[in-house]
Amino acid sequence: MAINDKHIDAILETYPAKVKRNRKKHILIKDSAQAHQEIEANTRTIPGIITNRGCAYAGCKGVVLGPIKDMVHITHGPIGCGYYSWLTRRNKAKTPEGGQNFLSYCVSTDMQESDIVFGGEKKLARMIDEVMDIFKPNAVTVSATCPVGLIGDDIGAVAKAAQEKHGIPVLSFNCEGYKGVSQSAGHHIANNGIMDKIIGQGELIETPACYSINFLGEYNIGGDSWEIHRVLEDIGYHVVSVLTGDGSYETIKNAHVADLNLVQCHRSINYIADMLEKKYGTPWLKVNFIGVTSTIESLRNMALYFGDKDLIRRTEEVIARELARIEPVLDQYKKICEGKTAFCFVGGSRGHHYQGLFAELGIETVLAGYEFAHRDDYEGREVIPAIKTDADSKNIPDLHVEPDRKYFKLKLSPEKAEELKKRIPLSNYPGMIANMKDGHIITDDLNHYETEEFIKLLKPDIFASGIKDKFIPQKMGIPSKQLHSYDYSGPYAGFGGAVKFAEDIAMAFTSPTWNFISTPWKDKPLLEGAMQKEGH
Amino acid sequence: MLEHTPKEIKERKGGMINPAKTCQPIGAMYAALGIHKCLPHSHGSQGCCSYHRMHLTRHFRDPIMASTSSFTEGACVFGGGANLKTAIKNVFAIYDPDVMAIHTTCLTETIGDDIPSYLGSAEIPDGKIVIHANTPSYAGSHVTGFANMTKGMVTYLAEATTDTNKEQVNIIPGFVNPGDMREIKRLTKSMGINFIMFPDTSGVVDSPMTGKFEMFPRGGAKVEDIRDTGNSKLTIALGSFASTDAAIQLERKCKVPAKTLKTPIGIKATDEFLMALRAAFISEIPYELEEERGQLVDIMTDTHYHFHGQRVAVFGDPDVVIGLTEFILSLGMVPVHVLTGTPGAAFEKEIKAMLLEAGLKANVKANGDLFELQQWIKNEPVDLLLGNTYGKYISRAEDIPFVRVGFPVLDRSVHSYMPIVGYQGAMRLVEMISNALLDRADRDAADEDFELVM
Description:
Chain A is of the alpha/beta class. Helices cover 44% and strands 12% of the residues of chain A. Chain A has a domain of 123 residues: 3-Layer(aba) Sandwich (Rossmann fold). A six-stranded mixed beta sheet of chain A has the order 1-12-11-10-13-14, with helices on both faces. Chain A has a four-stranded parallel beta sheet with strand order 3-2-4-5, sandwiched between helices. The longest helix of chain A is centred in the middle third of the chain and has 29 residues. In chain A, 53% of the residues are buried. In chain B, the strands form three sheets. In chain B, strands 12-11-10-13-14 form a five-stranded parallel beta sheet, with helices on both faces. A four-stranded parallel beta sheet of chain B has the order 3-2-4-5, with helices on both faces. The two termini of chain B are 32 Å apart. The interface between A and B is large, with 87 and 81 residues.
C-alpha cells in the first residue's frame, strides 16, 4: 500500500501537541522527487515515550572499549552499569597463545553510599592496584557512570597517578550516562581516548606487510570480523588491527602504520577514521560486509584503492569461488523469503546495512531507522557542515589532531585521492536514505507506540530489531529477528554470514510453531456433533 | 575460561569482580510489573531503563515494558522535575496505564530529586494513580529495590477500611519467578484460604501467545486488592530480604500482623508455610497436599544415594539461597560454599545457624562476588554448583556439574514458568540436581562402568 503523510499524521494524532511536533521531524517517507530530504536526529529523547535508546556509558564501555580483550575495563560506579555490560554484547574474542583475555570478567568499584558522600577516588585507586596485582593487564580503562560526574570524582587524576605508579597505560573515560542524548556520545568519548592514548603508542614505524589495513567499527558480534578476515587474508590483505572486535591494546597501538582504514560502522568510529587521516595521512573507505553484493563491492573498492593488478585478480578469484559456493544455497532460502517485507530498526548502522541482505533474499525493507545515528548517517556526510550541535551534546569534547611529526605519511597523492573519490566512497558515506525506495519509511528513535502503530499499518512479515522489542511483534504472530545479538547465532557478515542469515530468516518463516497461535476450539462451533446427527 | 583467577585469596577492598548481585531499580521494575495495568517508570537517565528491561526480557523471554525520564546533562544541574512531569503527561496520554510506579536511580538519588513534591504538581488524570519508591543503586542490591517498591505499594495504596479484619491473608511472595507465584497461590487456594498476593507477576511476564500484543496483560495484583490488604487478618512475608519491609509497613500503617517466613523452597520451609496458614485460618491441611508432601519424601528417600555427602557450592539472592541451603541439607548434601552478592548480616547468621545444627562448617558470605567463589572452589573443590547463569563460567572453568536456579537465567528457557517453591518445586529441584549429577557420572564412566540402571 502507498503510505502518505496522512497515515503518519493519523499515527501522531494520539500524541500531546508538543510530542507530535517533535516526532513529526523524526519521520520521513522517502521521496526521490525531492532534491534533499532532511530528518531530525541526535536530539534528546522525549521523557516517557518508551525509547529503545541506551546511554553514553553503554556506547563507550559497552560498545567500543569493552571488546578490547587484553585491557581490564573498570566501571567506576554502583554495580548495575558494570553488571549489565558484562558479556551481554556478543563481541567474540579468542585468547592468543600465551596472551590475555579478560572479557569474562566484570570489574566494578561497586560504589556505596559512603563513596557518594565522601567521594570514590580512593576506592578506584585501590581497585586499579588490585587489578594490577591480580591480572597484570597490558593496560586498564576506567569508565565513569552517572553519579561519578555529579559528586566530582576526578577519574583523570586517579588514572594518571595509577599510570605513574604501575607503569602501564591507565585510560579514563568521562562517559557518564547522562552525557549527550544516547549511546552516540559514548562512542565519541571512547574514540577520543583511543586516539589520544593508544593509537601511535606502538613501536612500528612502517607497515610490516603490503596491503595493510585497519578494520574500524567492527565489533565481531557472533564472529562477523573473523568471517571477513578469512576472505581478506585469502585475497592477500594484512590486517594490522580491528577496532575493536577481538581487538587488543597490543595491535591497536600500531594502527598508525596501516595503508588504509576500512569503516564498517560509520556512526561509532568515524571520529577515529577522520583523525587517522589528519594525523597519519591514512584515508578511510566506507565498506559494508553485510550482504553479498555489498561485500563484493567493498572488496572491489579496496582493490581499486590499492590499484595492484595481482590484488585485483586475486579479489575476483576469491569472489568467484565464494559465489560458486554460496549461490546455490542462498537460492534455496530465497524461495522461502521472496516477496516478503521487513522492518529494520537497529542502533546506528545496521538499520542501513541489512537492507541489502534482505533484498538479496527477496525481502523489501518498508521501514528502517536508527536509535541514535546522526543526520550524516541518514543523509550522507555532505550535510555535516550544516549540522548544528545542540545544547544537549555541546559538552561532548572534540579532539583536534595535527599531522604527526614522526609517523605522518601521505598514503595517497591528492590527485589520486580525488580521482578515486569519484569511483569509491573514499572518506565518504552517502547515508541510508539514498539506498531506500520511494514510499518507504525512515524513522529516528522509534518508540514503542510507533512500533505498534507502524506494524498495524504496514503488516511486515519480519521485524528486525533488538531484545526489548523482539517479543512484542512475536506476540502478534510476526517473526522477529534480533540484529544486535543475532539471536545468539552468526556470523552474519561476509559470504558465509549471508548464508547463515538466510538460513535463520527462512527458519523464522517456516517454523511450524506459528500454526498453533489460534485455539482450535475457538474456531469450531460448539454444537458440531449434534448438527451432524440431525443431518442424517 | 576465567583463567586469570588465581587460587591464592587476597583481601580485596576496591569493589566487585564478577558480582553476584545487580542494582536496585531492576528489582523495583520487576515488582511494579506485578501490579495489574501498571507501567514501571525509571526516573534517571535512559541507559538504566534500557538495561533493566533488556535483562528482565532475557530472563523471562517476554516483553518488559517501562518508561524513563531520559535525563540529559541539563536535568542533572537543574533537577529532574520537568522531565518527570513531561514523562507522566506523555505516559498517560500515549500508553494509558492505570498506575505508574516510579523508581529512582543513582543519578536522581545523588542529585536529591524529591519525587513526592514533583508528584504534587504533576498532571495526573482523574482515576489514575502514581506511586513511587526511592531505589538508590549504591545501596543493597536488586532485592533491596524489590523490597522498596513493594513497600511503596503499601505506603501509597493499602488502607484499613473495615472494623474487623477480613478472613484473608496477604502474601508477599518475594523476588521469585511467576511460576513460583502461581505455585504459592495454588497451595493457598487448595487450602481454601482467601488471599491477596502482591506483587504478582504471573500472567504478566509469562503471558500467553494469542496473536495480539497486550501492553498490560491480564495478570498482576489489582489496585483494589492491594488497597484491601489493609483489611486482612495476617500478612505472610516470604523471604526476609525481599518481603519483610512491606509487611512491617502494613503492620504499622493498617495494624495487620506480619509474619516473615523463609521462601518456601524445600520440605521444611514449605511445611512452615502451610502450618502458618493453618494456624491462622483452618483446622486441617487437605489430603492432596499431604499426598504431595508424601510423594516428595518418597522421592527424596528413593534417591538419597545420588546426593548423600555430595559437596555443594550455592550462590544467588539471599532469600532463595537460604531456602536452597536448607533443602540441600535435607537431602544429606554438604554445603561447602554459600554466597550472596546482597549485603546483610542476617544472611550469614541464618546460614551459619543451619550449618551449626547440621554439625557442618562452610564458607559463608554476604556481599561477596563470584571471583571469590571461584577461588574458594579452587581451594576446596565441590561436586555441584547451584546458582544463576553466571555460574556457567565457573562450572566450565572448574568442570563442575551445574544446576541453574534463581535470577537471572539467561541461557535456558521454560525455567520461569516452573516453580522451585512448594513440594512440587522441591520435586523439580531433586530432578534437576540428580540429572546434573547422574549425567556427569555417565559422562565420566569408563565403558565397563557405564550403567543401564542407576
